[in-house]
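WARN retry 2 of 3 for item q-0093 after timeout on previous attempt; input resubmitted unchanged.
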Amino acid sequence: QVQLVESGGGLVQPGGSLRLSCSASGSFFAINGVAWYRRSPGKQREQVASIPFGGTPTYVDSVKGRFSIARDNAEDAVYLYMTNLKPEDTAVYYCNADFVLTSYDDAGLLSYTVSNRWGQGTQVTVSS
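OK item q-0093 returned
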């Protein structure tokens, strides 16, 4: 069973910093794109940052210059470094990834499929 587990959330004062971690486990061939999303009370879920395999990160405008996404392919992990946090950053943060899975069909041929997975979320609260 492929899964993602986030950690690192908590309570921080405005202007503070946090690092969120997301670790992948299970049996998979590779991980393509990974991303961090967040959902604030009364708001729709939004993608905060994303990074494709070997590609360039992208960020939502509201966090540019403050957040940084990084992935460690050797450790199957992705991180979100958050600095200069603001009260409006308060949300549940979710890790998302596209896993490449392998299987053999009835003819014994190897096939690849992509399976999208979500983590359980980690709460970030920015408040004085």
